[in-house]
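Q: Hi! First time doing this. I have a protein sequence and I read that you can turn it into a structure. Is that right? Here it is:
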Amino acid sequence: MTQAHTNLEPAALSAQRLTLRAGARTLLDAFTHTFHAGEIWCVAGPNGAGKTTLLSALAGLLRPAAGHVELDGVRLSDWPPLPLAQRRALMPQSAPDAFSASVLDIVTLNRFPHLSGWGWEREADRAAARAALDLLGLADFAARDVLSLSGGERQRVALAAVLCQDAPLLLLDEPLSHLDLHHQIDCLDALAAWTREPRRTVMFSCHDLNLARRFATHALLLDGAGGAYAGPVHDVLTPTLTSRAFGYPLILIRDGEHEALIPAPRARHESPAGDDSPAG
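A: Yes, that's right. Below is the predicted 3D structure, encoded as structure tokens:
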């Protein structure tokens, strides 16, 4: 399901008959879609559906089983590494820290694609790092040792680092993990503000369908069996499509202008496995 787009901005990212596999399983089968500047995409689906694999392929770090990915009309395989790093940034699920360093230094590392000469950062690079920390409410963390941070604090620093890279395309693999609800909303607010600048696009994987419906403009729902639904978020994250993808019935409840997807209640006689026979 693909919606026509009238955005006059040039396309940021395009998947052309993209096929992804994990062993004998087909995660995505001949998927074609164009992701435009100014859009915020949530990649959703059950565990093992291929969300991380897809983001790695879209970043050019994983070779697809078939098809290809284009960035600004050029195949990823034809992009030199440095211009590619200036154009797109990837935030992995985890970023283990091998050594002690200040939060400011860790975030400044993502300025590497923009360094010149001997590779020393300039004051402008450190200013960009401080601005990214400030956007996420982390200005007071600049001098902290990264090894002293909690998991949620480290996750927010990782997001600040990818913003500091100043690439107009962000690919974020579960950026909200380890975060409490307050910080999840703060981070999504920051990403929404970030995309208001021209030519910027965000794709992030997320397990919270209701946060995705609130903050994303579009959704890509993977069913784990090769199928995918892509389009405006409220057209894709529907009870019918999400129930099909997750293998469990979901319903949409409304309270005035607010909506939420929740699991449908089970019948009182139904066992967790769906077996109606009595236990014993």
